[in-house]
Amino acid sequence: MVHFWRYSTPFHSDLHIRTLIPFLILWFTWTQRNAAKYHGVPFSTDSIILEVQRHLRTLIVRWHAPSPSWFKLNTDGSSLGNPGLAGAAGIIRDSAGHVHLAYQFAFGTGTSVLAELTAVWRGMELALTHGLAPLVVEVDATTVISLLQSCTSGKWEVQHMIMRIVCLQQLLVADVQHVFREANGAADHLAKEAASLQLTRVLHHDDITGILRSILCLDRQGVPHLRRG
């Protein structure tokens, strides 16, 4: 039954709330049953519901649309080996969750930090070109947030990228924020594909298909995901 539930839609993930809720219900039903059988505690469905809700509140994350008249850029970078084949990617959406553009950028061998920064830079550059501002930028790498806040790095290629981003940030009135990786699924999918296939391209709404379209649909509907511990 659980197997049927998990695979009843084209898009499935072990960490999606839709997958985990049945397991949480089964687990807390089992603990209630044991408490009733061995400790004389009255079996309570209300207690099961409360336990499931309490557990979910600590784990739920979701993609949030930007404020009206703002745009949101979600970015991610991937390095297969660190250093290894690297790719950067991102996607820009409006307050209704509609895609204005997505992009992938492959640059051969690089580190994960350089890939993450390249994703931010490339996305901001495209946002400026297409007039998509003001802009909220979401990054799931805390290292990148720290580098952009300090504006310093010991490696020249990283420092050069930081300065390019800072300049674009001022032009776009861009606010760079951290986001949990589970709420950054679209950018993550694009970045991994860019690195593994070494893709460089810009995508528009009609170019988006398959898994990426499913992820974007879930984001737009506000469907939550569960955060890894």
From TrEMBL:
<dbReference type="InterPro" id="IPR012337">
    <property type="entry name" value="RNaseH-like_sf"/>
</dbReference>
<feature type="domain" description="RNase H type-1">
    <location>
        <begin position="67"/>
        <end position="200"/>
    </location>
</feature>
<dbReference type="GO" id="GO:0003676">
    <property type="term" value="F:nucleic acid binding"/>
</dbReference>
<protein>
    <submittedName>
        <fullName>Ribonuclease H protein</fullName>
    </submittedName>
</protein>
<dbReference type="InterPro" id="IPR044730">
    <property type="entry name" value="RNase_H-like_dom_plant"/>
</dbReference>
<dbReference type="GO" id="GO:0004523">
    <property type="term" value="F:RNA-DNA hybrid ribonuclease activity"/>
</dbReference>
<dbReference type="Pfam" id="PF13456">
    <property type="entry name" value="RVT_3"/>
</dbReference>
<dbReference type="InterPro" id="IPR053151">
    <property type="entry name" value="RNase_H-like"/>
</dbReference>
<dbReference type="InterPro" id="IPR036397">
    <property type="entry name" value="RNaseH_sf"/>
</dbReference>
<dbReference type="InterPro" id="IPR002156">
    <property type="entry name" value="RNaseH_domain"/>
</dbReference>
